[in-house]
Amino acid sequence: MKTQQSDNTRPAASAQPAGPDSAPSRQPALVRILPFAAYMAFIAIADLLDRFGMAAAELRWLYAVKIGVVLALLFAFRRHYRELAWQPLGARGWLAAVATGLLVLLLWVNLDAAWMQIGSAAGFDPRGAGGGIDWPLALVRIAGAALVVPLMEELFWRSFLLRWLERADFLKVNPAHVKFKAFIVTVILFGLEHHLWFAGMVAGAAYGLLYMRSQNLWSPILAHAVTNGGLGIWVLMTGNWSFW
């Protein structure tokens, strides 16, 4: 008569491969967080140096270093940003993005009542000792604000955070399917990042809706670039340095 095989003589079960419900990798999040984190770290460094008495004229060039570091990180991680693979916007898409950027710009320079602000902003004054504009400094500021910041912020706020709040495995989230909770949390946090918090929330809502509707990250990037580039030109024309 056959005897039953003892339990401790049975072969051990082989390890099962990770299934679809396993925790997603942290790398996709990190490569979208780090450029933004570096940008914010430089803001903290500038504030600290100001408290230690460094002259404002010297601190202005820290912006170039900040933008250089952010740009280097974006370049280093470029292969991970599959949402930046070019997708044609079409005539309507271009029009919607540019119009949104201009509308946000118009609202931004008007939504500056006292209750719409957090603290005070020294702004960025590109004038030299003689009162004339230091054009290399001003052009670096405009280029950084219009070309680098929109790319960095949209990768963080819209591509990452908006979708991550919907689902941890955010790369699989279609922006058109993001629900109201994730949208409004992102809008609020984006607004609180800015001195003009109310204008920031308006901008965050506009860029978020543009992304959700177009499902193309280049749409809010373009709108953001139009806003920031236009704001830089407006500031140089009017001398309203506090908006910069």
> What structural class results from the helix and strand content?
mainly alpha
Measured on Cα atoms, how large is the radius of gyration?
A: 23 Å
How do the helices and strands follow one another from N- to C-terminus? HHHHHHHH
Low-confidence regions: 1-21
Structure description:
With 244 residues, the chain is an all-alpha fold. The chain has a domain of 151 residues. The protein has 8 helices and no strands. Helix 5 runs antiparallel to helix 8. The termini are far apart.
Offer a few descriptive terms.
244 residues; mainly alpha; 59% helix; 0% strand; globular; disordered N terminus
Architecture blueprint of SSEs:
Layout: H1 27-51, H2 56-59, H3 62-76, H4 90-108, H5 135-164, H6 180-192, H7 197-214, H8 218-238
Helix pairs in contact: 1-3, 1-5, 3-5, 4-7, 4-8, 5-6, 5-8, 6-7, 7-8
Q: How would you briefly describe this protein structure?
A:
With 244 residues, this protein is an all-alpha fold.
